[in-house]
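Ticket #4471: complex job returned nothing on first submit. Input attached below:
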Amino acid sequence: MKHILVIDDSATIRMSVEYALKEIGFPISQAENGRDALEKVNSIKSNGNDIAVCVVDVNMPEMDGITFVKEFRKGDKFTPVIMLTTESEDQKIKEGKDAGASGWLVKPFQPEQLVDVVKKLVR
Amino acid sequence: MIKSKNNEFGKDLYILYPGDHYATQEDCVIGTISASCMVICLYDPIRHIGGMGHFVIPGAMGTEGIYRDEIGSHGITSMEYLMGEIVKLGGDRKKLRAKIFGVANVSGVNSWTDGIKNSIFTFIDEYFRVEHIPIEKEDIGGDRRRKLYFFPRTGKVLRKLLENNQDSSEFIKMEQEYINRVFKEKNTYGKVIVFE
Ligand SMILES: [Mg+2]
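Support reply: We reran it on our side without changes. The output follows.
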């Protein structure tokens, strides 16, 4: 079974992303920072399941989103990772791309747009 | 936002205009004047980092909950801008405390319908409850403008109630322009990039 992993330090954002992505039909797991997310990835994979897509905030305590992508990519080159953030500067976006992100959405997000991007990237 | 050095506090003073946010760990003062917008002060009392946001949600919400609501999600995003700066400075989201001001109906100035005003109150209640951020002080509503000075390292706030046309009345005009802008742009979302 493939899981969607929603990673954001804000509980309200995690809930709105989960609500938006419900229609895709995959089970959704949440993590509140990059470190927490890496643990979730391990536990999902060690239960014989897989990740369909990660939706990741950038500014988080403990481990930020860019660092998470770098760490995640060490063990997984292909699963799409979508950054969902208030950061919109070109330099930051390039950092995300270089780290291995698949897409970049700036908050506030329109639920339909997030669903479209997820559907486009998850094949 | 402007920075001024000459003030009664003997510290740098950052004055926020409607729509602005600022977070810092400097020993400074952050000030603003609000009529109908909300002013959110957040601080981490352990790491001595704090910030202020001056904003509003762009309309009345439905009853589904703020995270299922388009208007609510704009408010959540405004909070994210402020919160993101605090997190970047090393503030601990789990230690944050809030002090909240504003949302007055001042005669002759922008005046909220009951629907919008109740939505703002609902937003505040629900956001801080879901995020587990305790509200230490909530001074909202009424019919007077508020002049606020926030000390981000300690969380102290000085508040003065203003007469309608007293003191820096240019804020009234700026607030109205800001409100008009966010209400007009409430269907505008952030950019979407898919890397090839
Ligand atoms: Mg964040």
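The pocket of magnesium ion is lined by residues A 8-10, 57, 59-60; B 84, 87 (CB under 6 Å). Closing as resolved unless it happens again.
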